[in-house]
Design goal:
mainly alpha; three-stranded antiparallel sheet; Methane Monooxygenase Hydroxylase, Chain G, domain 1; 162 residues
């Protein structure tokens, strides 16, 4: 397993779940722009949610599902059950999900249990034939081109989610 393919599956996991939950994937790439406010990263997936849902808990849950979908897709691809809180490359995703979940579950034990339950459900969803096929197709395209614009991502995902 090469890092580029793992990264493509990771980013495709974010993209597919965001798309399935109503987000727009504005673009994806392997590698990432260097900047001061984000950690060094191997890939990038830019998502636009549009107007914030009036149900803030639902808005947060969509974001949490999307954030954790990257590590879960990579976990499924690797067939290894790493926990994002403790596996270095995914700690940024976990920290982001943890922060997003804080208003919903102030108690840290409840938050941990809720996020782990979300990951179990995500793993089940990601392994559905149609979802996994979409992740694989998007990943292949990302490896082939290293960067995908919104229109190309939309074309690929629309095929699987009509």
């Amino acid at each position: 397993m090469d890092d580029e393919t793992l990264t493509a599956y990771h980013e495709s996991g974010h993209a597919v779940i965001a798309y399935a939950l109503g987000g727009t994937v504005q673009g994806m790439q392997l590698g990432g722009e260097a900047d001061d406010w984000l950690p060094a990263r191997f890939g990038e997936c830019r998502i636009q949610w549009g107007r914030v849902d009036p149900d803030l808990d639902w808005q947060r849950k969509r974001e949490i599902l999307t954030i954790l979908a990257g590590p879960v897709a990579e976990m499924v691809y690797r067939d290894e059950p790493f926990h994002p809180a403790f596996y270095g490359p995914w700690q940024h995703d976990w920290a982001q999900a943890w922060r997003t979940a804080t208003p919903m579950w102030a108690d840290e034990r409840q938050r941990m249990a809720a996020l782990e339950k979300i990951m179990v459900e995500l793993r089940r969803q990601v392994q559905l034939d149609r979802v996994w096929a979409a992740i694989a197709a998007l990943s292949d395209e990302l490896v082939a081109h290293e960067m995908l614009e919104e229109e190309r991502v939309e074309d690929i995902l629309e095929f699987w989610f009509r």
